[in-house]
Amino acid sequence: MKSKRKKFWSGNNRFRLMLTLELAVMLPAAILIYVNFKYLKSFEHNKVLEATIQRDFQYMLAISEKRINEKIYTMTEEVRNLFPSPESETELDKERKLDLILSKRPWLAHVFLYDSKKGFLFRSQPQQLGDKSFCEERERLAGMYQGWFGMQARMLLDDMQQKNPPITCYSEHARRAGGYVYMMSALFSLPQLSRDREVLGGAVYDFNYLKQTFFPEMLEELVTHKLNGEGGKQLAMMIYSGKYEGELKDRLLAASAGWGDGRPEVSHSFADVFRGLALGIKFQGTSVEALSRHMARQNFLILGVLSLLLIGGLIMAYRSVSKEVELARLKSDFVSNVSHELRTPLALIRLYAETLELGRIKTQEKKEEYYGIIRKESERLTALINNILDFSRIEAGRKEYDFRETDIAELVRNTLDAYRYQIEQQGFTFEQSIDSDLPAVRVDREAIERALLNLLNNALKYSSDEKFLGINLYRANSVLKLEVVDHGIGIARREQAKIFEKFYRTGDPLVHNTKGSGLGLSLVRHITHAHGGEVEVESTPGKGSKFTMSLPLAAAAG
Ligand code: ADP
Prior knowledge:
By secondary structure, this protein is α+β, with helices and mostly antiparallel strands. Helices cover 54% and strands 20% of the residues. It is built from 13 helices and 16 strands. The chain has helices at 2-42, 47-82, 91-104, 132-161, 207-226, 248-251, 288-357, 364-395, 408-425, 445-461, 509-513, 520-530, 553-557, and strands spanning 108-115, 119-124, 167-176, 179-189, 199-205, 235-241, 252-255, 266-269, 277-283, 404-406, 429-434, 441-443, 468-476, 479-486, 534-540, 544-552. The strands form four sheets. Strands 2-1-5-4-3 form a five-stranded antiparallel beta sheet. The protein has a five-stranded mixed beta sheet with strand order 11-13-14-16-15. Strands 7-6-9-8 form a four-stranded antiparallel beta sheet. The longest helix is centred in the middle third of the chain and has 70 residues, at 288-357. The chain is rod-shaped. It starts with a helix and ends with a helix. 27% of the residues are buried. It binds adenosine-5'-diphosphate (ADP). Adenosine-5'-diphosphate (ADP) is lined by residues 454, 458-459, 462, 486, 488-491, 499, 504-506, 508, 511, 516-522, 545.
């Protein structure tokens, strides 16, 4: 009744522990993993990341435009400062000054000076005047600006007055036979002139210079020095005509290295100097979408690995908790088994001793039988107590072995002789095969004897129908083998490794009806290990078992 109650409680505890583990740890962990996966699955690519990158790109492009504009303004201001003064100089001097500006600055196609009082001077790069289309362009531009300034110089000047530096850029964008032509003129007012004077200067930038030198250099500078991409990714930028429809590659004016042939992730139209053109930006060799997909995949992977770790940890925790619970159960079984085992022989010894004391037993034969029983029971008691003491020494790490040169054959033979009577009395067929020419080995006699006795006792205890006991001692190469064979109940394969653990007893009903502490085999294992050896079991349920202690000759002898 008591033990049943105990079992019920320990079972209940175990159940409660497992329930806690499942409800408090497993369930939240599973939900956490599930929710995270769902959340990640809900967007295949990382939209937040994409939006962030795009915002960064917009910002970079705005800054880039500003830098390009600043550069043009600086260059134009330089030119403006070199312009002849409309008041003091003669027309010839002015022309010469303008030509000088052109000769020092091959990146200008034309420069011009409009003066409402003194007329319009329009000078062009002399070495290009041989080009027919250049001359046509020059005629057109000269006519256009003269006409325009004639009508609107005042308004243009008023506009410029608002700005610092007083420069307005005007661009023309045309499709020509050879592709697109982009004309950018910077118009400016001249310093130190009275309000009523209408004078305007201007410079037309050379298209080839813009396309082949200015834009590529600017882009390269912007990409390499000024801007850093997301996660160290290299950026690429390009400038293209934003005015016309058509294939991007036909509209491309300039691109930084590594642009490849993709589309820009983000575009930005120039709003001041280079009206009609646009800036494009992207990552070199990848797209934002690919990048964000990659990030999403990476997140998945990280989550996967974390989940696996979590699950692994939980399984380990679950296992160690079950192991602890199992050990606690085994320990409580052990206590009840041992107390039972101690009580039985003591009761028997007392009973027989009292009977003898009373002097009621008359025949010598009977008396001897009783003495025999008392001796046998006290031996059993001693064996059990020795086991428990040894076990507690081992557990406390205090077990010491006394290795001595030993004739092991003799040791085994003597031990068996002491038990032969008992073995045969229990109805066992007993076979022993001990090689006689075995070398002397260094072992702890008492320990080896105890191991052999434990194996021998098990063979006796766990045999039911066929009572057979075989002991073999022989040498196999450099190993000494001691085998204990029985034809008893055997051990199921899945339990064969566990029986060497402390307190473990198999679930066989015969084992439950047999007294035992579950310590014997754990001692045998400890003893063999201490001798540098191994203990193994071969067993078939219902057929019998064979326990083999292998002791290395060299190590044991050393
Ligand atoms: P016990 O005191 O229970 O015999 P042991 O450590 O010696 O403890 O053995 C552990 C368990 O291994 C036993 O309870 C039994 O289930 C099993 N066992 C040991 N030897 C044998 C054997 N020769 N035949 C069948 N089962 C065995």
